[in-house]
Structure formats: structure tokens, C-alpha cells
């Protein structure tokens, strides 16, 4: 059954078009950052290295990207981007080697080169996702995660169990 039809039948399911239907929508830098943060997790890296049948791993990665970063991509899109990042990394590494050391670093040939290299070579990622977030967001571990929208906020506690948060929107509460 088509995912779009399923989502209409079950409103709780997010509408995530399948790759062939949408023609492979380009990934934004923030979406790539979210994928890199999830991929950097030690357990994800180990599972990806240890199995060839990895659909369930990419399904979990897609769920984590949505839950932690608000990025909605399906497992096939995540798998394709993962494979493309690995291919681009190898290509950039080869291009750098062919050009010689005077041509600048291999990062010149690929965006996010250093981050992909850190993941593939297991460098400086003891805390996995947290370390990758520090790299990608200049030390801010909470950057990229779902947060309250910008604007002035105030919270009012009405009882022990209830908090009301109001977000200012153009001067109106």
C-alpha cells in the first residue's frame, strides 16, 4: 500500500513520500547534520559494520532523526544518503591523493569530509552522537535538536503537575 495512502488512513503516521515519488528531494545541510549525528552513535556504527541486511538499522536511524532533530526522511532515503556520503568520501580521498599534498586537504572535494572521516575511522567519537553534535554545531551539544521556536517565552505553573508555556508571536500571547 502506498505510504501516502497509509498516512491518510492513519493520521498519526507522518506523510513521508517515497523516494521514487518525490524524485529524490535534495538533502539540506541540517538534514545531513542530523544523519551524521545519528550515524556517529557507537551502537549504530557497530550494527552497520556487522550486518549486510540493514533495513531495520536505517528505520531506527530515520526514527531517531525525526525524534531528536525533527528531520523527516524514510529509511531508504537515509540508506541512500549514507551510501552516497561513503562514496563521496572515498572519491574525495582518491582525488586528494591524485592531486598531491599541495592541492589542499581532501575536505576541499567534499562537504562534511572531516565528519564522515571521523565516523568511518572511529576518531574522537567516544560519546558518539554528542561528540558529532559538538563538531557540527561549534561545541553546542543541544544545537540541531528540537527546541522551542524563537520568541519570548514565559511559563506559568498552575499546579504541581501542570505548566503552561506561552510563546510570544508578534507581540500577542
TrEMBL record:
Q: Which Gene3D superfamilies does the entry link to?
A: Homeodomain-like
Q: Name one Pfam family in it.
A: Myb_DNA-bind_4
The ranges of region (Disordered) come to: 1-24
Q: Which residues are in the Myb/SANT-like DNA-binding domain?
A: 25-118
- Looking at the record's lineage, which domain of life comes first? Eukaryota
The protein's name in its UniProt record: Myb/SANT-like DNA-binding domain-containing protein
Q: Which organism is it from?
A: Poecilia formosa
Amino acid at each position: 500500500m502506498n505510504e501516502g495512502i497509509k498516512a491518510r488512513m492513519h493520521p498519526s503516521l507522518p506523510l513521508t513520500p517515497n523516494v521514487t515519488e518525490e524524485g529524490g528531494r535534495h538533502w539540506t545541510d541540517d538534514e545531513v547534520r542530523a544523519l551524521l549525528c545519528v550515524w556517529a552513535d557507537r551502537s549504530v556504527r557497530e550494527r552497520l559494520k556487522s550486518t549486510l541486511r540493514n533495513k531495520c538499522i536505517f528505520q531506527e536511524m530515520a526514527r531517531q532523526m525525526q525524534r531528536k532533530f525533527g528531520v523527516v526522511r524514510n529509511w531508504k532515503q537515509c540508506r541512500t544518503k549514507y551510501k552516497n556520503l561513503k562514496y563521496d568520501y572515498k572519491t574525495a580521498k582518491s582525488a586528494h591523493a591524485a592531486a598531491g599534498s599541495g592541492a589542499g586537504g581532501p575536505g576541499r572535494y567534499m562537504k562534511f569530509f572531516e565528519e564522515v572521516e571521523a565516523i568511518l575511522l572511529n576518531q574522537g567519537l567516544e560519546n558518539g552522537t554528542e561528540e558529532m553534535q559538538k563538531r557540527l554545531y561549534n561545541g553546542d551539544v543541544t544545537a540541531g535538536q528540537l527546541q522551542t521556536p524563537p520568541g519570548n517565552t514565559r511559563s506559568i505553573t498552575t499546579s504541581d503537575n501542570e505548566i503552561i508555556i506561552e510563546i510570544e508571536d508578534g507581540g500577542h500571547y
